[in-house]
Specification:
elongated; single chain; 5 helices; Four Helix Bundle (Hemerythrin (Met), subunit A)
Length: about 140
């Protein structure tokens, strides 16, 4: 249990400092401004989700989780056509779905773990994109 809280704290720090948005996404890049905007919206929703997880605000948690799910269906989200990006995106969608389900069940044990899973899926994808940019 203590390790889970450490991981949750690490995820919180990443979300608050903007690490989850990726350093290359704050400037114009080959991914373009539409993707930058949707990632900023994702970061905002993720921060609101963290707040809801920490305060056990189940209504806000469900609402922000649903909004995060909605963002993954936005055409700006799927602007990148790389197979690896699609794989990461699917993993993120599954993690968000798990978070929303944990929130709907008011599951105090699963919700923090589900939030950490969402955050780790973000970081995994952003690491992949950073490596892809460096390779180009």
């Amino acid at each position: 249990m203590r390790m889970m809280w450490r991981v949750l704290l690490l995820a919180a720090v990443c979300a608050v400092t903007g690490l989850a948005a990726g350093p290359g996404q704050s400037r114009a890049s080959s991914e373009g401004p539409p993707l930058n905007r949707v990632m900023r919206e994702k970061l905002f929703e993720s921060q609101k989700i963290l707040e809801a997880v920490v305060t056990s605000d189940w209504v806000a948690l469900e609402n922000h989780s649903r909004e995060l799910e909605r963002l993954t269906g936005d055409p700006r989200w799927t602007i990148l056509k790389y197979p690896e990006y699609a794989r990461h995106s699917d993993a993120f969608r599954r993690a968000v779905s798990g978070l929303r389900q944990a929130a709907a069940a008011h599951d105090l044990e699963e919700t923090p773990s589900a939030y950490v899973s969402v955050t780790l899926r973000c970081v995994d994808c952003h690491r992949y994109l950073a490596r892809a940019r460096m390779a180009r």
